Amino acid sequence: MGPDRETRERAATGATATTRPRTRLDQPLPPRRRLVPEWDPEAFGRLSERIARFLGTGRFIVWMTVVIIVWLMWNIAAPRHLRFDPYPFIFLTLMLSLQASYAAPLILLAQNRQDDRDRVNLEQDRKQNERSIADTEYLTREIAALRMGLGEVATRDWIRSEFQDLIRELEEHRSDGRVVFPAERPPRSDVDDR
Question: The pTM is what?
């Protein structure tokens, strides 16, 4: 009567009653076990790129040719009891098919990764070009504003021409070795009377 009665009293009843234990929300869940092994996609991608690069080299073609020639020569010239793949070379065909079946997806994976990198680079180049165009337009507007401002400023050539005009005027109005400045000149009507 004692232990059964206590468990019944402690058990939740009603709509909130659950049979499974409640998990705490303030603690992370324990890692789950998976049937499929986990791998790092970046590491796998880098490995596939290395393999694809090797498959696309002359070194691979030379080694593949050497292996096939040795394979064929061994299975043709070796004593009959040492030959492991006689004339129709079915095992060689199987090995080449296996190699091709793995090489094609690895090459495609490497190309997809290269396409992703190219897409990112193109996007960065596009943004850089937009910034360059905006900077160029800004500088063009600034140069135009400076030119407009310089149009109102006295330039060296303008000042030089004004000085030359003043010197000519002074030389024309010189009398008795004394320089007469334009402000000291008599009015025009007095000059005409003389």
Answer: 0.49
